[in-house]
Amino acid sequence: MYNTFATLVDPGDEVIVPTPFWTTYPEAIRLAGGVPVEVFAGPEQDYLVTVEQLEAAVTDKSKILLFVSPSNPTGSVYSPEQVAEIGKWAASKGLWVVTDEIYEHLTYDGVPFTSIATAAPELGDKVVILNGVAKTYAMTGWRVGWMIGPADVIKAATNLQSHATSNVSNIMQIAALAAVSGPLTAVDEMKVAFDRRRKAIVAGLNAIDGVECPTPKGAFYVYADVRALLGKEFPTAAGTATPSTSAELAALILDEVEVAVVPGEAFGPSGYLRLSYALGDEDLATGVARLQDFLGKAK
Q: Which is the CATH superfamily of the domain at 186-295?
């Protein structure tokens, strides 16, 4: 991600960033001298931006559209038709597209993964695909990723990489090759567990008054709308507390019931909480039960 933006972005270039976004994206853009332009889609849109929203964000400084499906933090997945429409639109504007496809194998309910690079051939060679082994193959600690793009872009990124961290170790490269060249049997088994936990956490959160949690179609996160809980009073060990932001609510949840959630401020606007269901069923049930008990006491 850093190499891609450092290669493509010149000072002052604007990068359109569908929001909520993974927290690294805008910082990598800023470090390259670019300007992230946030385009927010809320739960009523399943956190999926539209071409009309993107069109409204374009200026004469726009250079890149960042595209992510399935999404972290929301778990939302664009349909093949939506991907093709957005890709065709980006091509018509002469934009580069940087697509993060690290959750490509983690989709549910029969929803397909669609790469914008193949869905919109109009983009030609103005696409850079980012991926890695961390999510699909549960190899987070190995830190292996890759770029696919035009030869001159990859060459420039390679030059940058050679002066930064040099390279991924040979052992890690061999492990990653074994993962991507082998069968997806273990991944399919993981998806069964993820799907079970996905349904459990969505049902558990939606049972709480003031929480709206759309059902994600990919990745292993849910993005709950908790705006209705802000400004309400919660009983605490020290008395009461009235959080006015999701950051304050997340801190309160951690302090009072020892459940870690990430507030919306990390990914865009306040008023939301990201939760991961990449953990054991028992721990998940315990965490959701604690949230139900604590958040259910809001007045």
A: Aspartate Aminotransferase, domain 1 (3.90.1150.10)
